[in-house]
Amino acid sequence: MKLKKFLALALAVTTVLSMSVLTGCSSKKEETSAKETTAETTAETGAEGEEAAGAKVDMADIKIGFIFLHDENSTYDKNFIDAANAAKEALGLSDEQVIFKTNIPESSECYEAAADLADRGCNIVFADSFGHEQYIAQAAAEFPEVQFCHATGTTAHTAGLANFHNAFASIYEGRYLAGVAAGMKLNEMIAAGEFTEEEAKMGYVGAYTYAEVISGYTSFYLGAKSVCPTVTMDVQFTGSWYDETAEKEAANTLINGGCKLISQHADSMGAPTACETAGVPNVSYNGSTVAACPNTFIISSKVDWTPYFEYIVNCVANGEAIDADWCAGFEEGSVALSEINEAAAAEGTAEAIEEVKAKLISGEVHVFDTTTFTVDGKNLDSYMADVDTDADYTPDTEVISDGYFHESEMRSAPYFDLRIDGITTLNEMF
């Protein structure tokens, strides 16, 4: 999830990494015996690569350490924690083989956590937040026998380190389907006379103005627009991945500004609870909020990290190299939707989602089809994106061909950063 956390990230990474040739994203693809402090707990039950792979490792000898930005109070981190526990159970790993470190900030504390996990015998170390990347890269350079895997990062494919890996999923497809559900809800409200077609405006609570967030809210909007052509959307940024007060305030600002439905790319329950209080439909992220918002929650999309966790453990067990850039989608089980809340969703939502999902999988529909959106009133047939991230974020790769923007195909992390017509950003401070 967390992209472009610091403008100096790529420059910092290059102090410990040597740059190499682009490797594309895969197309389908003690230590701790009891709970310790809130910063560190033992998990409970709940390839293709750059260079040569290592020797096979008996599954009983594998140890994997996880570094989480927050803890289970964050919907983002809880999603990773749940996936780690699911993979642990599926692979038959013991409590002693899986170590969790929670509430690890995007600072040198991440390097210290990674080094500690390596010192404690972990074969694999995984970190879940974009701002962790430079510290994971630093640890990878220091511990070449340990595999360091990182969610949502951008530099592994050019790092020149065989033991440093990035991973993500085509979550923009999940957000597009969630947008279809949102558009159908707007149509239902229009048909009921609650507002006119011209008043069909959604709101979106975003954390930062990073490519991942822009890709996410744009795909959500395009999904809604595919069934409700008159829809527009306002975006309010919070400047934080997890700030319940700021997220609630942002949602209320959007509601007071005339938004009829709210979605988000932020990690707390602030926006969903604001919607429940106001009686405004909500599309969540990273998991269902129906228990707290039974009257307004419609659906949620998420990345299911279980397949990736199983993949990296099996790679180490089999002595196979881990992809430098790994990306998967619906077919691999890496993008998922929650159950639909029939109490809030429009009639026929489930059927519509399944129909569009099948077309996404077959390639009949592309999320960023350039005939479906304009930039400054014009359709695009060319765009140079920042794929090989450097300190200046220099556009370097043509990503539009065959009539659509090829998101997450040149590397796993999103690079869609276009500001399309129909979406208004209310603040640009972050």
Q: How many beta-strand elements?
A: 18
Strand-pairing-aware structural class = alpha/beta
Poorly predicted spans: 1-52
Q: Please list the strands of the largest sheet in the order they lie side by side.
A: 1-3-2-4-5-6-12
Work out the helix count.
Answer: 11
CATH class value of the largest domain? Alpha Beta
Radius of gyration: 21 Å
Tell me what the structure shows:
- By secondary structure, the protein is α/β, with parallel strands linked by helices.
- It folds into 2 domains: 9-171 and 305-328, Response regulator (Rossmann fold); 172-302 and 337-425, Rossmann fold.
- It has helices spanning 9-14, 75-91, 108-119, 133-142, 156-159, 171-191, 211-225, 244-256, 270-278, 306-318, 349-362, and strands spanning 41-42, 64-67, 98-101, 124-127, 147-151, 164-169, 201-206, 232-237, 261-265, 282-285, 297-303, 325-328, 335-337, 384-385, 397-398, 400-401, 404-405, 423-425.
- Helix 7 (211-225) links the parallel strand 7 and strand 8.
- Helix 2 (75-91) packs across helix 10, helix 3 packs parallel to helix 4 (133-142) and helix 8 (244-256) runs parallel beside helix 9.
- The chain is globular, with a radius of gyration of 21 Å.
- The two termini are 16 Å apart.
- 54% of the residues are buried.
- Residues 1-52 have low confidence and may be disordered.
